Amino acid sequence: MFDHRDGRADAELLAATGDGDRTALEALYVRHAPWLLVRLSRRCADRTIVDEVVQDTFVEVWRGARRWSGRGEVGAWIWGIGVHRLLDRLRRRPPALLIVGEHDELVASAEEEVLLAVQFGDLGRALDRLSPELRAVVQATVLDGLTAREAGRLLGIPAGTVKTRMMRARAVLREELS
Amino acid sequence: MTGWHVADDTMIGYARGRVPLSLGASVETHLLACAECRDLLRAVVAGGEVDRLERLWDEVVARVDAPRPRPLERLLRLAGVSEDTARLLAATPTLGASWLAAMSAALGFAVFAALAAGANDRGTLLFLTVAPILPVLGVAAAFHRGVDPTYEIALAAPYSAFRLLLLRSAAVAAVTCTAAVVAGLLLPDRSLTAAAWLLPALALTLLTLVVARRVDVVYAAAGVVAVWVPTVVLSHLNVGRFAAFGPAAQLICLAVAAVSLVVLVAGRDRYATTLGGV
Amino acid sequence: MAGSVVVEGVTRSFRGHAAVAGVDLCAGSGVTGLLGPNGAGKTTLLRILATVLAPDRGRLRLLGHDPGTPAGRLAIRRRLGYLPQEPGFHRGMTVFDFIDYVAILKEMTDRRARHDEVRRVIELVGLAQVSGKRIRALSGGMRRRVGLAQALLGDPDLVILDEPTAGLDPEQRLRFREIVSRIGEGRTFILSTHQTEDVAAVCQTVVVLHEGRCLFTGTPAGLIEQAAGRVWLDSTRGPDARVAWRNGDGLMRNVGDPPADAQLVAPTLEDAYLLLVADRGLAEVSR
Predict the structure, then answer these.
(1) pLDDT band of C142, cuts 50, 70, 90
(2) Residue ranges making up the domain that contains B55
(3) Could you tell me if A79 and A141 lie in one domain?
(4) Main-chain dihedrals φ then ψ at residue C139, nearest 5 degrees
(5) Å from A125 to nearest chain B CA?
């Protein structure tokens, strides 16, 4: 299925999906399921949960395609659904998490170092120097756009702890960058 | 767009979960907006995970294609009915919203009229006369050719038409009778209005189905009703108070119901070729 | 699969009027077309073949079984697909829902297998893009295809289609014929139509019905033969023309008994059909 190409743009595919076109849903799946799988796996180490969330997400895409506002990236909309489906699944089961940062670091190529310096600069390096727990809350709240309570659910910690860690992360970053 | 795209080895690293937060964050944010890099990730991932992705898609398909059960269907499944039977019943024309509304209106009217007539035999008689007619009309409407759109297609299918007939009639009768029993409990002469009409209802419904073997079910229903109403009224006036619901009458109804059922079952093969009957 | 449909002297009347008056028919694998004007008895005959109507008289053998017995009917229906002239749909259902519903009526109890089969026929008729759409939101041509899809469920050996191309525009009709000729092999298809192009395009056998009787049974080429030497062009309508009409070039196309010096042309299936029907003394011919 992954060799088949659909010429339509994402927005068009989503509109067609809302209209009951299953081939459009399939095209969206081909385009977005791979990255969704990886991104979810970086939040949750449990393969079964990730499998279920990917399914839940695309079933939800099918059922809720008409609800898309039409603005912004379809990918972002799909991630919004995906991360909330992940929260739903985790609510039902005790989480086995992957805390971002607990792994070997890939050395960025020289070119990327330069580009990163342009985009993130010291902030990027400072972020990477945060402890795993602080990095996890930053990723959940800033990158994934979750509320403190949702981030708590994702990481298996109380919402209050999320807030405290965010404050600490901000303090550390401010210190590093000044 | 700065023109920045994810390099191949970065993407591979990202896919394996081997990049630091800042780089990962960059990649993830970028992927939301860049189709080209999404394709790259797809190519990277497809190598190892294509089976997993295809399996997940099969599951999505299974869930997405499965028709969403309507509320009635879900109710039936909860009651232990098999999925196939529940789907067939849920598609019964007279178990739909419009029919239920019409029946509620009729019932409501009967109750209202009965209450308005006061603690008076007339009101009770009205209710007792109307209540058994409702399942008859329901069954007639369920099987009238004009109402079930898939009538002809269903006829040419192997599923036993007789079984469908019984299932649907039972479902319609059960629904209408339950509603009528509840309505009957609201009336003053409760002991009568709640239950005395049940056997007559059964008898009339089965009789309608039997007569419908010869004529269109709508005519059968009309005929049965045309015989029932005068019988009730005349027997009430000439034989005795609510004579049509007294013990003797109940026995007659039971007999009529039993005989009708036997006739129906004996002639069940007749339902297999019936463009023109039930 | 020779002789999967054998009809001998079948008669069926309604209120004293004979809709089908002694028809003999034999159909094997491939596509058989029933051609005839409205009221010719096509629908009645097809209903009899689809086991939804019993004949008053005559002998009938479908797929080796006798539809007069309950067991025979059941056996036939298990290998039968039928598209009635007016297929009704539960309008609120989606394409998938409806075909799934019919699949249940066809005794497909295993949910997974049934859904796979529903997807297969949806794909076959080219409706995959609207399988989630409600039928009432579809155009007439697409609804016909839904009807065709349900008739193909379970890969039946005998498929009966009553006026499947009625109301379709030329492009839709072409698509439909394409589907039928693609899957016609190895199965017996019987379809009715009053469009001669449908017959010319897909049928191996054609049966012309008129007022409940069979006027011709044979191949389309055989039918055309009947009009050989009986079609000519002229500036006006000929005295012995049964049927005539002005064609696109401004000339009159005459079908009947040509005068000696007539400019004969090769007959088409339509000519032959009209001639056959006209020879029976029809006052009004539908074109």
Answers:
(1) confident
(2) 8-65
(3) no
(4) -75, 165
(5) 7
Measured between CA atoms, how close is A17 to chain C, in angstroms? Answer: 9
Rounded alpha-carbon distances, angstroms, from residue B157 to C71, C73, C75, C78: 13, 10, 10, 7
Residue of B152, B144, B210, B213 whose CA lies nearest to B172: B144
Model confidence pLDDT, tens digit, residues A34-69: 999 999 998 888 888 899 999 999 999 999 999 888
User: What total of structural domains would you count in chain B?
Assistant: 2
Residue B1 lies in a domain: no
Rounded to a whole number of angstroms, the CA Rg of chain C reads 21
Both structure tokens of A127: 């972020």
The reply to whether C127 falls in a domain is: yes
A135 touches chain B (CB under 8 A): yes
Best probe of the C interface among B152, B270, B271, B278, by most C CBs < 10 A, is: B152
Structure tokens at C107: 């005794």
Q: Are C148 and C87 in contact (CB under 8 A)?
A: no
How many domains in chain A? Answer: 2
* CA B201 and chain centroid, separation: 20
Q: Do C131 and A20 touch (CB under 8 A)?
A: yes
Q: B27: burial class by Cβ within 10 Å (0-12, 13-18, 19+)?
A: buried
In total, the C-beta contacts within 8 angstroms joining chain A to chain C are 23
Distance CA C86, CA C143 (A): 11
Q: How many domains, chain C? A: 3
pLDDT per position as a tens digit, A107-125? 334 444 444 454 556 677 7
**Mind giving me the DSSP string for C72-131?**
HHHHHHTTEEEE-SS----TTSBHHHHHHHHHHHTT---HHHHHHHHHHHHHHTT-GGGT
**Other C-beta atoms lying within 10 Å of the C-beta of residue C256:** 20
ipTM over the 0.90 cut-off: no
In this prediction the pTM is 0.77
Mutate to test the interface with C, among B87, B95, B143, B153 (most CBs of C within 10 A): B153
Q: Is A20 on the interface with B (CB under 8 A)?
A: no
Tokens found for residue B137: 């009309």
